[in-house]
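Contributing new records

If you add data, match the layout below exactly. Sequence lines come first and carry their own label; structure lines follow with theirs. Keep one chain per record. Anything else will be rejected by the validation script.
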Amino acid sequence: MSDKTHLSKAYTSILVSEIDNKGALKTGLVQLNRPDVLNALNIELMKEVVEALEGFDRDGETGCTVLTGNKKAFAAGADIKEMADAGAVEMLLRDQFARWDRIRKLKKPVIAAVSGFALGGGCELAMSCDMIIASESAKFGQPEINLGVIPGAGGTQRLTKAIGKARAMEMILTGKMFGAQEMFEAGLVTKVVDADLYLEEALELAREIASKPTIAVQLAKESVLKSFDLTIESGLEHERKNFYLLFATEDKHEGMKAFVEKRRAEWKGK
């Protein structure tokens, strides 16, 4: 039985829905909804985002989730008003970034659909997702340096791993914004599409992923993420164990049998 509590909650800063993919698992959709402040990421919004993403992660009827904002902004950064008067000890005790770590632990893929500004915490939130579909209008940046601080939700780490030291240094030390096409060429963005199609394209990618065997998708995601944490030897060992583990699933037997019989596989998620 699927857990649907995330769909019935009374959220204040996000909109949550699910999309029927006709024969495949459903797609979860989480939309940041603070348009008056360009979806600035305050503590309450991030709490709701994580709760909704974890809800879809638990939901047996969901295969993939899309996280988005609106045409003008995915998220223009953190809500500076919450931090302006805070001291070091207060920020340490608040530990607001611990919630971000939970996004990385999600088993199912999450796709960021980005239009407009994805700056500071907004850029970091997009990078916390597994793929980024960007509108031609998207602008990425880590402008924290202009506030006298540095990225604190993974920007110095994820950005460097995605686009390399030289480009990450430029973005972080200058605080400049960079366009979607430039970030696609640098390796941060999965695909750049027309400004009117970015969400549709992200949902189509999610539908395709949701049509694949669930356990294989989750172990594939896990293996890719482990490549950032492990040496090549340890990473290969981890990959191999996940490969062998999938031979215990019904979907592996169905997939190979369907291939031999030249028919479409019918996945059971087992």
